[in-house]
Design goal:
single chain; 5 strands; 5-stranded antiparallel sheet; alpha+beta
């Protein structure tokens, strides 16, 4: 191995692909889960500084629901904690979930504490899936492809 850089970039692209793909697959599975009524118990926005010095805003929603008479709590909105660049973007999510309002909760019938509020996959998530695929493709192309084209002497 002459230069480890292509392998590092390939690994990073693969990790990104896995993360995005995992999120999409979880939502696809959650779309088939049963739903029950729940109630919002907390609705806030938190912020934190990123390693690039920017501030990201995170909607924080908590809810309670019952399955077969047993109470559960959840805080997953759509399968992942996504930071937003502006407080207004995060607010647009919290505006849908007012304190005390009734919501539909999708829950895993085998493990009801595995739950979320929104199982819909946006077109943007599918487009985002293309980014690491393209990244991996570029890494392969620039590093000489799957089969090294250098002549061996």
């Amino acid at each position: 191995m002459d230069n480890p850089t292509p392998y590092i970039f390939f690994a990073l692209g693969t990790i990104a692909l896995w993360g995005i793909g995992h999120s999409i697959l979880r939502k696809r599975k959650a779309a088939t889960w049963p739903k029950t009524k729940g109630r919002i118990t907390a609705c806030t926005i938190s912020s934190r500084k990123t390693n690039k010095g920017r501030i990201s805003f995170f909607p924080k929603i908590a809810y309670q629901f019952k399955v077969h008479g047993k109470s559960y709590e959840g805080n997953d909105i759509d399968g992942g904690a996504k930071g937003h660049r502006t407080e207004g973007d995060a607010q647009s999510i919290t505006d849908r979930y007012h304190m005390g309002c009734e919501v539909d909760v999708c829950y895993n019938p085998l493990k009801p504490d595995d739950c979320l509020l929104e199982a819909k996959i946006s077109n943007g998530e599918y487009v985002l899936l293309l980014v690491p695929i393209a990244f991996i493709g570029v890494v392969i192309a620039v590093s000489g492809g799957v089969l090294n084209t250098k002549e061996k002497i």
